[in-house]
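Saturday, quiet lab. Running sequence design on the structure tokens for the scaffold JK sent over.
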């Protein structure tokens, strides 16, 4: 039999799979394509794939037979059972050292499980986040691979060739072990939720407090896109606000204000709660979507629950208002990314993953939905210090947030007095003020816990005494009625 020609196999000929195959073929690789509904293979071969270095396979056997060793097979199918089904079907045809890469939006615990199961069979499993949608897949996505590191030398060249580039550097590098690649993609999606929510709050304030038209708001976003907020999401927001329906009015104002979600933001927020990390902005972004979806209740509430009317002279200086708003958006975004990296850092510790922080920032720099100029600064910060405890401790970001603070506070105060919700702006500022507080009111909270549940507390070192020894769990009989037994197992 002739030597196989295929550099990579790809299963799943929907939007992502087809485009990634065409991208790899453009870079000189021969790709073997397969799909559950086999007629889609023929359709693809007769149309988009015609004349390119793409081989259509009509069975798993044919796919595998056409691949060079070690075989590299990418799955781009619906996350969940479809991934397990294809792994099952592939296994009888694979040999030790072959590589399966799941490029779908799988939840990282599934990737952890698949990595372990396949390790036992000598197959290298990689879970790779892929971001950038259809266009990214076709012309350069952000790729976040993690899992069996033995696979990396065999896939590095192809992955880095087809990925997006930022200042000539590929937006693809090895993330870490097991489900780390999909974990980082999950946090990316959570941050995407946060960025989108922040932008919508800025739009809402300009519209409802500033009285700006959509075109004027579009112009503000266009201006912001030339500065520190330069990013894909600000750019598309500019274009959306300038887009008119057939009747010449902005289409965006006709869209039902009830947000959907597929769950990756929720996964991030749940994981943050599990790991005890205050990733408040992503949490608020998820809840803001939930609140928006209560449309009929909100219509009722609007006629029952009072609040301030927006004052006509709320804004004294229009330019100052816009500048303050830009600072509020910038500062809140810094907090969101700082929180996202706090979560990634904690996940590294909890799951015992050595994570490549500078590479993570670089991977998000281009090709993906959260791509922005701002991520170049985050990459720089983590390159200077890969173990950076918090992004806010890097001088660039300390200075940036210091400078933005006044506009940030003024914007939130203005929105609050005018009755406009700013969940993401506000939670970011509350986090900032909490994080920079040497002393928080948790002393009182600990006292309450000890009062009602004998949960004990510890004393500040400077207040330690014979009765209140340092470093010990202390219970006080606050009422003189309870006993002296403390709760050792019950955690409120
Ligand atoms: P879809 O998520 O719509 O999946 C379609 C593919 O899954 C088809 O090949 C389909 O085969 C196959 N499939 C399904 Br559906 N159920 C199956 C089953 N039970 N067994 C085997 N195959 C099954 O495609 P997509 O939008 O291209 O996304 C692919 C992956 O990439 C997903 O995990 C997605 O979350 C992720 N992703 C998507 C985007 C995006 O912008 N769309 C971005 C980043 C990541 P069939 O043709 O026989 O029905």
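Result came back. Writing it out in full:
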């Amino acid at each position: 039999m002739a030597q196989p020609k295929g550099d990579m196999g790809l299963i799943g000929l929907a939007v992502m799979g087809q485009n990634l195959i065409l991208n790899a073929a453009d870079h000189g690789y021969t790709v073997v394509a397969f799909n559950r509904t086999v007629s889609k293979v023929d359709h693809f071969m007769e149309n988009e794939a015609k004349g390119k270095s793409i081989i259509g396979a009509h069975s798993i056997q044919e796919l595998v037979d056409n691949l060079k060793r070690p075989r590299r097979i990418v799955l781009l199918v619906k996350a969940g059972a479809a991934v397990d089904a294809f792994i099952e079907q592939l296994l009888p045809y694979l040999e030790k050292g072959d590589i399966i890469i799941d490029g779908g939006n799988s939840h990282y615990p599934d990737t952890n499980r698949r990595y372990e199961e396949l390790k036992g069979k000598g197959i290298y499993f990689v879970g790779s986040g892929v971001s950038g949608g259809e266009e990214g897949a076709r012309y350069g996505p952000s790729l976040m691979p993690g899992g069996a590191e033995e696979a990396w030398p065999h896939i590095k060249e192809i992955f880095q060739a087809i990925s997006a580039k930022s200042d000539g550097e590929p937006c693809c590098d090895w993330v870490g072990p097991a489900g780390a690649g999909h974990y980082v993609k999950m946090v990316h999606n959570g941050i995407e939720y946060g960025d989108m929510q922040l932008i919508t709050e800025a739009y809402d304030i300009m519209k409802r407090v500033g009285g700006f038209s959509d075109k004027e708001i579009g112009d503000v976003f266009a201006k912001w896109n030339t500065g520190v907020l330069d990013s894909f999401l600000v750019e598309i927001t500019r274009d959306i606000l300038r887009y008119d329906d057939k009747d010449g009015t902005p289409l965006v104002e006709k869209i039902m204000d009830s947000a959907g979600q597929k769950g990756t933001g929720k996964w991030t927020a749940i994981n943050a709660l599990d790991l005890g990390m205050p990733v408040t902005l992503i949490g608020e972004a998820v809840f803001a979507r939930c609140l928006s979806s209560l449309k009929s209740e909100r219509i009722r509430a609007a006629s029952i629950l009072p609040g301030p009317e927006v004052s006509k002279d709320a804004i004294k200086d229009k330019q100052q208002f816009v500048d303050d708003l830009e600072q509020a958006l910038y500062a809140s975004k810094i907090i969101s990314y700082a929180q996202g990296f706090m979560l990634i850092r904690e996940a590294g510790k909890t799951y015992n993953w050595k994570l490549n922080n500078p590479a993570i920032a670089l991977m998000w720099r281009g090709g993906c939905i959260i791509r922005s100029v701002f991520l170049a600064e985050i990459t720089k910060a983590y390159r200077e210090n890969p173990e950076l405890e918090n992004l806010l401790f890097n001088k660039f970001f300390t200075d940036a947030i210091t400078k933005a603070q006044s506009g940030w506070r003024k914007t939130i105060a203005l929105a609050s007095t005018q009755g406009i919700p700013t969940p993401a702006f506000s939670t970011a500022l509350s986090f900032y003020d909490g994080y920079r507080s040497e002393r928080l009111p948790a002393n009182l909270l600990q006292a309450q816990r000890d009062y009602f549940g004998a949960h004990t507390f510890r004393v500040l070192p400077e207040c330690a005494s014979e009765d209140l020894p340092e470093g010990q769990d202390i219970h006080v009989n606050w009422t003189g009625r309870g006993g002296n037994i403390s709760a050792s197992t019950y955690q409120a």
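Notes for JK: Residues 146 and 181 are 4 Å apart (CA to CA). Residues 12-17, 35-37, 40, 76-79, 81-82, 85, 104-105, 130-131, 133-134 surround NBP (CB under 6 Å). Ask whether to fix the surface positions before the next round.
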